[in-house]
Amino acid sequence: MRLRLARQTRGMTLKALADAANCSESLLSKIENGKASPSLPMLHRLVGALDTNIGWMFEESDGEEGIIFRAGTRPLIALDPLRRGEGISLERIIPYSAGHLLQCNIHHIEEKGESAGPIQHAGEEVGYLLTGEIELIVDGKSYMLAAGDAFVFNSELPHHYRNVGRDRASIFWVNTPATF
């Protein structure tokens, strides 16, 4: 499962990873589904192609991960305007952990703020607009949303958004697999 998650997070197809690790798609599929075990050299090639390490592939959660994340104590990440958009910060609802299959943030978008994009990657996304007004553009089609509106789409479709209101907008946003 962890191998598949790492591959999907990086937006790689089975073929792309198999080519990068010099193995067959069939073998890679069997490894991801627990029907085959990779040799140590194969494992080294796989983690090298995924830009991770063998330790990450086998680390186990100690069961001490938090369950409750109190208001005011969650990490707030201001995005780099050159890579991720202008006027956007992310409040981590689920702190980053290798063990999580979901990524959940509240995207806070300042007036006239917008995401970099459009972007596309493996996965699925769902959101609920808590406050404000945004324009969500998915696969070239524009959708105007107001507080209380929700959305869902396949992450492989090109997508981005911008604040079209006069106040800060906040979106409760969940996607899988985690993308950043």
Topology:
Layout: H1 2-9, H2 14-21, H3 25-32, H4 40-49, H5 54-58, E1 76-78, E2 85-92, E3 103-115, E4 124-131, E5 133-138, E6 141-146, E7 150-154, E8 159-163, E9 169-176
Antiparallel strand pairs: 1-2, 2-3, 3-9, 4-7, 4-9, 5-6, 5-8
Helix pairs in contact: 2-3, 2-4
What's the gyration radius in Å? 18 Å
Structural class category: alpha+beta
Oligomer: single chain
N-to-C series of helices and strands: HHHHHEEEEEEEEE
Strand content: 25-35%
Distance between the termini: 18 Å
Looking at the structure, what is the overall shape?
elongated
Described by strand count, sense and barrel closure, the largest sheet is:
6 strands, antiparallel
Structure description:
This protein is an alpha+beta fold. It is 22% helix and 34% strand. The chain has helices at residues 2-9, 14-21, 25-32, 40-49, 54-58, and strands spanning 76-78, 85-92, 103-115, 124-131, 133-138, 141-146, 150-154, 159-163, 169-176. A 6-stranded antiparallel sheet has the order 1-2-3-9-4-7, with no helix packed on it. It has a 3-stranded antiparallel sheet with strand order 6-5-8, with no helix packed on it. A hairpin with a 6-residue loop joins strand 1 and strand 2. Residues 60-64 have low confidence and may be disordered.
What descriptive keywords fit this protein?
six-stranded antiparallel beta sheet, 5 helices, elongated, 9 strands, 180 residues, alpha+beta
